[in-house]
Model the fold of this input.
Amino acid sequence: MSPEALAAQQRIDPTQVVGWGVDADPANNPTYPMRDISKDSKGGLDWPRPALQPETVEVLRSTEHNRRTAVFGTSTPPSGVSGALRRQAFKSSEGKWSHWLILLAADRINVVEGVAADLLAGRVPNIPAEMGIKSEVAHNMPGLIRKVAVTGAVLTLAYALVRSRQGDGRRHPAPPTPR
Done:
């Protein structure tokens, strides 16, 4: 299928997209009067659209965009539980907080999926290196100390909560029986 035919197939009716065109009214242009477009030949749209990159993997697209961009990333297509969450997030508008919260949760789940995939492949991930500990030591020592302190406090609190729910593990003498 040619890129033009693919673009035509993917074209959606923008009047059906919630929130689309909120800046379409020139009278409501926030750059006015700073931007002078009177000398623009076509109102600022004076360029041919570049050829579309072939879509070889699943690419999620915002509901606010009429068509996908000419170039996009293909290194990490959605997969697993995080991919399912991303697909669900892209069904709603970028203007909704749930869209972004679902994407944040998908990112965190994707980290766990990556660690699990490494372990299943027989590789132990070098988490400190992946977190950039060397650069933190070299360039952001106060930030690293703060992160270690906060992480330690959270882990200590979690440990204390778990221990308090389990009891202290010691046996207490049975209460005296009444005579």
